[in-house]
């Protein structure tokens, strides 16, 4: 598993990514506790920044202090042209008149519509040419800003719609709607008005249009309902923009085919249950679960407990995903590959890849450290022609504890070592000062970290180095947060370039000697005997 870079996590936090990128990061966060924590920190800092700037906590004598420090100056009057007053009057008239709502039957498609473009996934592009897609064109205007819903696709697996925001001159504005503090709410309701609880939904910016998508894979089916957009702030302006978009799933459910599979397979201590497949107009969804056998789980928990005694429970469990994962293909009857998930299928890339996959969703039972069953729903682009497909289990990914350690002197760097298909160099150990936000009169907090940077090369299917700890010469152990990347660049031996950064928030000074302990690693086990299951009755 390759962790996203910080700028990707920031873009994810700001909802400024394409749908497929949002799905990729979401799927990664389900199995990477470190990145999940990073995203939570970013969201917290955004919230603190907003609250700090809007409502700073000031000392009681703050006003007196400011007044005492003021220096008199001569104010120069600005010249205001009459037409600016006219604009102000027009805005006042709009406010007095209130909100205007319009529904226009004559909608001019923009280059065939967003859902026919490559700014959305191929499944939505396919659905855009069916009766499940419609031009909506519902608009509401307030404060000189118009929110307009243009296109709607209602499928049995998901609902998607596009909208745009324009000013009085018709200029397109940023479609991002901030959902902090519930200022802007987009919800799905059944016919009786009850809000549907969704496990996942996404937003993306497509050519200055907002695209919202609701996933319906784990809800109680309903035939009719509506989407409600309750927007109170657009581009910093407060107003009232409410739109209700009728949805009818009757035709979508009529087109959907659900096939019960209920097949199980056990290999190398991992159980895979293939539950069902749902064929919809815009998606093919595969429902399955993975878990360790009871004996394999107990052995793993025993090893994790031992690591906890050696270091700490937090180091052994907090940011390491021990749940098993799989990689598989989708084939037709002739064995032609139609799609795959999480496979080392490209010799030119040093990490697992997907083909024709739209996204995925997963959740595990119990607490993270219990390593219980994980239920997954993987979504692929549907085949345009009806044919018999097969699920082919190709690879399983298992995480186990490790006993590898490397000791080095911080004043004798770089230091190179080899381990299990890796050749890595410790390039630097540096003490850095980071700055973050806090709710205080002094909103900037200084935080010292120690960062260990490594680089090198690894074989394509070398195990993922899943967790580390740092120990000084006195025997004090420090928890580490790790990130890294696998690049497509290769060395003369065909190995792929790797970059790793290990961060400690507790080690305040760089000592002469340090030891890196590898806590866990994830290995890819390609099956000698593949499991092939028909995805049809």
Automatic annotation (TrEMBL):
Residues 80-166 form the DUF4179 domain. InterPro entries: DUF4179. It holds the Pfam family DUF4179. The chain crosses the membrane at residues 85-108. Keywords: Membrane, Transmembrane, Transmembrane helix. It comes from the Bacteria. This is DUF4179 domain-containing protein. The lineage of its organism: Bacteria, Bacillati, Bacillota, Bacilli, Bacillales.
């Amino acid at each position: 598993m390759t962790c996203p870079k910080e700028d990707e996590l920031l873009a994810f936090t700001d909802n400024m990514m394409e749908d497929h990128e949002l799905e990729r990061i979401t799927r990664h966060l389900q199995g990477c506790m470190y990145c999940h924590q990073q995203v939570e920190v970013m969201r917290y800092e955004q919230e603190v920044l907003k609250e700090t700037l809007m409502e700073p906590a000031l000392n009681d004598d703050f006003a007196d202090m400011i007044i005492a420090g003021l220096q008199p100056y001569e104010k120069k009057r600005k010249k205001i042209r009459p037409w600016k007053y006219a604009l102000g009057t027009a805005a006042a008239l709009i406010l007095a008149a209130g909100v205007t709502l319009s529904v226009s039957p004559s909608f001019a498609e923009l280059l065939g519509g967003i859902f026919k473009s490559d700014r959305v996934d191929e499944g939505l592009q396919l659905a855009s040419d069916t009766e499940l897609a419609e031009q909506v064109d519902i608009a509401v205007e307030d404060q000189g800003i118009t929110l307009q819903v243009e296109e709607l696709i209602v499928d049995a697996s998901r609902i998607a719609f596009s909208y745009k925001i324009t000013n009085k001159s018709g200029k397109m504005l940023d479609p991002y709607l901030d959902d902090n503090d519930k200022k802007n709410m987009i919800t799905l309701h059944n016919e009786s008005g009850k809000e549907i609880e969704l496990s996942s939904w996404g937003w993306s910016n497509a050519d200055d249009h907002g695209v919202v998508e609701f996933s319906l894979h784990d809800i109680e089916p309903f035939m009719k309902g509506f989407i409600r957009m309750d927007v109170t702030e657009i581009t910093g302006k407060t107003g009232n923009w409410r739109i209700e978009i009728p949805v009818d799933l009757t035709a979508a459910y009529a087109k959907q085919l659900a096939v019960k599979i209920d097949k199980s397979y056990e290999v190398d201590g991992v159980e895979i249950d293939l539950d069902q497949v749902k064929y919809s107009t815009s998606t093919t969804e595969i429902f399955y679960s993975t878990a360790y056998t009871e004996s394999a789980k107990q052995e793993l928990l025993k090893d994790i407990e031992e690591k906890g005694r050696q270091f700490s429970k937090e180091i052994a469990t907090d940011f390491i995903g021990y749940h098993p994962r799989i990689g598989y293909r989708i084939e037709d009857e002739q064995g032609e590959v139609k799609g795959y998930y999480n496979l080392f299928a490209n010799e030119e890339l040093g990490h697992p890849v997907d083909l024709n996959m739209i996204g995925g969703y997963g959740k595990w039972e119990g607490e993270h450290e219990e390593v219980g069953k994980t239920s997954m729903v993987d979504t692929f682009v549907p085949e345009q022609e009806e044919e018999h497909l097969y699920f082919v289990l190709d690879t399983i990914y298992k995480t186990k504890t490790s006993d590898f350690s490397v000791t080095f002197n911080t004043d004798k760097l770089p230091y190179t070592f080899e381990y299990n298909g890796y050749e890595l160099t410790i390039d630097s150990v540096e003490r850095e000062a980071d700055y973050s936000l806090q709710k205080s009169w002094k909103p900037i907090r200084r935080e010292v970290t120690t960062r260990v940077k490594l680089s090198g090369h690894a074989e394509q299917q070398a195990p993922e180095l899943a967790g580390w700890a740092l120990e000084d010469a006195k025997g004090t152990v420090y928890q580490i947060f790790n990130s890294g990347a696998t690049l497509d660049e290769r060395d003369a031996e065909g190995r792929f370039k790797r970059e790793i950064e290990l961060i400690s928030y507790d080690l305040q000074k760089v000592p002469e000697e340090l030891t890196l302990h590898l806590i866990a690693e994830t290995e890819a086990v390609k099956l000698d005997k593949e499991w092939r299951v028909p995805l049809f009755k």
